[in-house]
Write a structure and sequence with these properties.
Helix content is 53%, strand content 17%. With 532 residues, it is of the alpha+beta class. The strands form four sheets. Strands 6-5-4-9-8-7 form a six-stranded antiparallel beta sheet, sandwiched between helices. It has a five-stranded mixed beta sheet with strand order 11-12-10-15-16, with helices on both faces. A three-stranded antiparallel beta sheet has the order 1-2-3, covered by helices on one side. The longest helix has 43 residues.
């Protein structure tokens, strides 16, 4: 039986599920509440903002988009529905702005708001049925499933919310249990209940495994401790992660059985050092980490922890957190061996990588303003240590507003993405390219004495903009580019940007679709030939 907060799930030998009420320890309870608070708070914020927009629009539609306004009972009822949810959403957002609130209280308020939204939706569906004399259970069913799939809630409370809404809807809407809609809605409520229980159980298991790993890591980190063979075997059989044991003298590595869930190799690998040297699926950088760990074990290092990327079944790269501790042989205390734990952290790494990507890139796939700015400052700070110079190009679209006004904003977004692709396609090696603002882009280059290729690159970008199409139709697209190159190591980012921006201004003044280099304006007379 696995003990989880509010409910215990027992799996009998025959595979039947039975439910019993149970209480988790205070520590586990707090961890669960913290996790639930973070999930439910984010969900409520998104829902509140969405409700503000939708219900605000609905209120305006009732007041000004209807000929009868609030003169009819029907409109007044709908206005009441919309206003109620709008006020509740505003109150939740006001509460959320308070900085000092506990996880427990914050989660309780979030669940109250979610319950109100669900009950509001049920009541609105009931009124729609009375008004149209036609039963619709689709929206009510969707809300029940969404609640069970997205909200983290203890099953006792989750089931109360689900079935309270079910009985209210079925009774008030006068839906027969044996009608088609009644059967469908009943099955939906049952499915939502199962999802609620299973999801809660899964979250509690994850939290428990995380706690186990953390406790083991803390013990390994704070003090040297010894496990008997029986204790190690017990951990190997019951832990939710891979365990292993390495004998340095025999050079033999033995894994727990769940090793085969990820890898095709046998549980036991004799002559592991030889295997590691000849293995083609492990990258050299990862081999280096493993060898360093093995050497540390031979020296008697008490505890080690590192992350490693390995190729698993199906040729899928996965990340693992490795924790290794030295143990002393019970038969010969001079003999040392290592035991370790492998925990799959691929999901966490992917989330981190995605977060870092979103934090540095904008919608066009280029570096955002903050990232390209940081890159420029870092390059210029180290300029005195290098022999190269730094070039900055600023590209600004010509008459971009006309594209949005003529073809619409989706077309404008498409053009910006195409411009970004052109800049990347023809960029010199090691160029850093970013979007600095709405229709303004920046390119950073490390250059030597020869800078002629900078103008060639800029002119090529302008020429290829003429090929941009929208729905098969060519669009009148152009840009102006100004650039500057540092003259000495005293230049900082602000000065380089100011000079490149001045060159851009001169290119615009010369008639647009121009390239202009700072300090060489005589090459670009006003109304001269453009690069169209």
């Amino acid at each position: 039986m696995e003990k989880i907060c509010g409910i215990a799930v027992c799996v009998a030998g025959g595979g039947n599920l039975t439910l019993k009420i149970s209480i988790i320890s205070d520590v586990g309870k707090e961890k669960y509440i913290e996790e639930a608070f973070r999930n439910n708070r984010l969900l409520c914020i998104v829902a509140s903002v969405f409700c503000l927009a939708v219900e605000g629009f609905n209120i305006i539609r009732v007041l000004f988009g209807s000929d009868s306004g609030l003169n009819t009972l029907n409109n007044r009822i709908y206005f009441g529905f919309y206003t109620f949810l709008l006020v509740c959403s505003i109150l939740y957002l006001i509460y959320d702005r308070q900085k000092e609130k506990s996880f427990r209280k914050g989660n309780r308020i979030s669940l109250i708001y979610i319950g109100i939204v669900l009950f509001w939706n049920t009541c609105l569906n009931i009124y729609d049925i009375f008004r149209s004399d036609h039963v619709h259970v689709t929206m009510a069913s969707t809300m029940l499933v969404a609640f069970s799939a997205l909200v983290i809630v203890e099953p006792v409370y989750g089931l109360i919310i689900i079935w309270a809404n079910y009985f209210i809807f079925m009774t008030a809407a006068q839906i027969s249990l044996f009608s088609g809609d009644g059967i469908n809605y009943t099955l939906t409520a049952l499915m939502a209940s199962v999802i609620c229980i299973v999801r809660f159980r899964h979250i509690c298991i994850e939290l428990d495994q995380s706690r186990q790993i953390h406790e083991i890591g803390e013990k390994l980190h704070t003090r040297r401790f010894w496990l008997t063979k029986e204790q190690y075997d017990l951990i190997s059989q019951n832990a939710g992660f891979i365990t292993f044991q390495w004998d340095p003298e025999k050079d033999k590595l033995v894994f727990s059985k769940n090793w085969r869930d990820f890898f095709e190799n046998d549980y036991e690998i004799p002559r592991f050092s030889q295997f590691l040297n000849s293995c083609l699926t492990i990258e050299d950088a990862e081999k280096k980490k493993i060898r360093e760990c093995m050497e540390a074990v031979r020296r008697g290092a008490a505890y080690q922890k590192f992350e490693i990327k390995l190729l698993t079944r199906g040729n899928i790269q996965r990340w693992f957190k490795i924790q290794v501790a030295c143990q002393r042989s019970s038969s010969d205390e001079s003999m040392m061996y290592a035991i370790g734990f492998m925990n799959d952290i691929t999901k966490e790494k992917e989330q981190l990588i995605e977060f870092q990507k979103n934090a540095t890139l904008d919608a066009t796939g280029l570096l955002n303003k903050a990232s390209i700015g940081d890159c420029g400052r870092n390059w210029l700070e180290s300029l005195h240590l290098k022999s190269h110079r730094i070039a900055m190009l600023i590209l600004d679209m010509d008459d971009f507003k006309n594209i949005n006004d003529t073809y619409g904003h989706p077309c404008g977004d498409h053009v910006l993405k195409q411009v970004a692709d052109i800049m990347v396609k023809y960029a010199p090696e090691n160029a850093k390219i970013g979007r600095f603002g709405g229709d303004e882009f920046m390119v950073l280059l490390k250059v030597g004495e020869d800078t002629a290729y900078i103008s060639e690159y800029a002119e090529k970008v302008i020429r290829h903009m003429a090929d941009i199409c929208w729905n098969g139709q060519k669009i009148e697209t152009g840009c102006s580019i100004g650039f500057a190159v540092t003259e000495n190591a005293e230049w900082d980012y602000e000065k380089l940007y100011q000079c490149a921006d001045e060159a851009l201004y001169m290119a615009k003044k010369a008639g647009k679709k121009r390239v202009c280099e700072f300090g060489k304006y005589e090459k670009y007379p006003e109304n001269g030939n453009d690069l169209s």
